[in-house]
Each structure stands twice: as structure tokens, then as C-alpha cells.
Amino acid sequence: MTTSPGRKDDGGKPDFSLLDPMALLLVVKVLTFGASKYGADNWKTVPDMERRYFAASNRHLWAWYSGEETDESGLPHLAHAIASLLILFAFTLRKSKT
């Protein structure tokens, strides 16, 4: 009996294996830290959130650029910056749907 190779039609679909798991884990840890500090989904109701998360992402980028690896949470500044940018991006996507 001959067996044929398995088949999986995933061509053209998003390839999540392209994400570095450790980088993604650290961003999720930042989001979890924020949720425990401020409440889950708090970002959805922050006043003037676009300006504030833009400023937060820049603060973390400049701290990293200045040589600081982590902030007071013990998590990387770059992970904080990415989390802030993801929040901005999610907000923009939600806003464009309305």
C-alpha cells in the first residue's frame, strides 16, 4: 500500500511562524502588566488616547535608544513601545469601522 503525502492548503494565508515567539511573548507580558495595573481593555476608554499612547511609545523608544533596556516593570522598553503602537493601531482600525 502506498501512502501519498499529506496535504494542507495554507498558501496565501497569514504565516504566524514569521513572528518571533519571544518578542511576541514579551509584548503580551507588557499588555498583561497593563491589564493588571489599569484593568483589561482600559485602553479603549483612555481620554485623548491617540496622543497619549503616541507619547508613551516615543518615551519607551527614546529610553531604549538612550541605553535603558527595561522600565520599572522589568520588561523591555521596546516591548512597551510595540504594545503602545498595537493599541494605537487597534484604535485606528476600530475607528475606521465606524
Can you offer a commentary on this structure?
It is a single chain. It is built from three helices and no strands. The longest helix has 21 residues, at 77-97. Helix content is 57%, strand content 0%. The mean pLDDT is 94. It is an all-alpha fold. The chain has one domain. It has helices at residues 21-38, 49-65, 77-97. Helix 1 (21-38) crosses helix 3 and helix 2 (49-65) runs antiparallel to helix 3 (77-97). It starts with 20 loop residues before the first helix and ends with a helix. The radius of gyration is 18 Å and the shape is extended.
Could you give the distance between the termini? 57 Å
Residue stretches low in confidence (pLDDT < 50, at least 5 long) are none
How many domain modules? 1
Instruction: Estimate the helix proportion, in percent.
Output: 55-70%
H/E element string? HHH
Largest sheet composition: none
Radius of gyration over C-alpha positions, nearest whole angstrom: 18 Å
Q: Beta fraction of the residues?
A: under 5%
Please report the total strand number as a whole number: 0
In terms of structural class, how would the helical and strand content be classed?
Answer: mainly alpha
